[in-house]
Amino acid sequence: MHxxxxxxxxxxxxxxxxxxxxxSSTKSPNGRFxxxxxxxxxxxxxxxxxxxxxxxxxxxxxxxxPVVVSLLIIALIELVGMIGDPFRVESGGASIYWLFVExxxxxxxxxxPIIYGGITRDRLGSIxxxxxxxxxxxxxxxxxxxxxxxxxxxxxxxxxxxxxxxxISGLEGYFASKRMIPIAILLGALWxxxxxxxxx
Length: 200
Prior knowledge:
By secondary structure, the chain is mainly α. The chain has helices at about 1-10, 15-25, 30-50, 55-85, 95-120, 125-140, 145, 150-175, 180-195.
């Protein structure tokens, strides 16, 4: 009974000297103990292999929330763009409603990672919430330059512009998740400067 307990709680491999000693010194004539021991060894291997599954599932689950939030941000902005300005007057400019919407969208990109990081303190998730929405939005906005007739010069410009904004907003989320809000806000100001400078 004591031998079986020790064997069950050890991480054994095919080359383990403990396994060889137990099988050679305690094997019964009818082979029953050998079969029991082999079963226990197999069980130990399975338990060892499955020990890492909860951590993998937890890491995978942690990625779901930031990805969903990022997709919702992109979908919201695309939906607003499709609706357009219902109060626009043909002879005039944009309505007050549309100016409010544009301002909200402009602030949403840099604010989202700061808010998400400050609430969840999830560093990886905050980086994703900062990086994915702006990159996804720019790719969708310039999709006609990618397909069906790719414009290589424009593609390089869009990717470089999007990557720079994604890195900064990702860093916003990182520092916000560490409760370093002033640094995150300064990065948000830098994000605005680069974003506006990219208008052509």
